[in-house]
Amino acid sequence: MELPDEAATEAFGAALAPLVQAAADSGLVIWLSGDLGAGKTTTTRGLLRALGHTGSVKSPTYSLLEPYVVSRIALYHFDFYRFNHPDEFLEAGLDEYFSGAGICLVEWADKALPYVPQPDIDIQLRVAGSGRVASVQACSERGRACLSHSALRRT
């Protein structure tokens, strides 16, 4: 899916809102993968805005985690870019967030492997000229079920 500008990247994130709403009771792990500046936080901002969040949405690069509760849905936005070793995931006690019904949006998941759970949905973002390109892949039965009723399934 081509995303020619920031507005298109936010709209892509907004298209994830029905997936998140459908999985709100069972939880969902979404990996947001891509280089610096590829649109991971912009995608998250679009998702949160579509769910009704009106506050700021910032990258959790320094805080590791930005929690949100929107429309009674718990969303946890993680960024493991600054990890020097995967054990930091366990040392920070972040594993507890992945055991409930929350929606976990994870940037730089590879830096927390093997401890971070595998994704239900993997979103790859890459810079392409002045825009971005996104691809979406279901990686679990839960992810396939979410995508089967989504406009994103064609990506």
From TrEMBL:
Keywords for this protein: ATP-binding, Cytoplasm, Magnesium, Metal-binding, Nucleotide-binding, tRNA processing
Main location: cytoplasm
Domain of life: Bacteria
Alphabetical list of Pfam families matching this protein: TsaE
Cellular localisation: Cytoplasm
Matches recorded under Gene3D superfamilies: P-loop containing nucleotide triphosphate hydrolases
InterPro entries according to UniProt: P-loop_NTPase, T6A_TsaE
Signal peptide: none
Family per record: Belongs to the TsaE family.
Designated name of the protein: tRNA threonylcarbamoyladenosine biosynthesis protein TsaE
Gene transcribed to yield this protein: tsaE
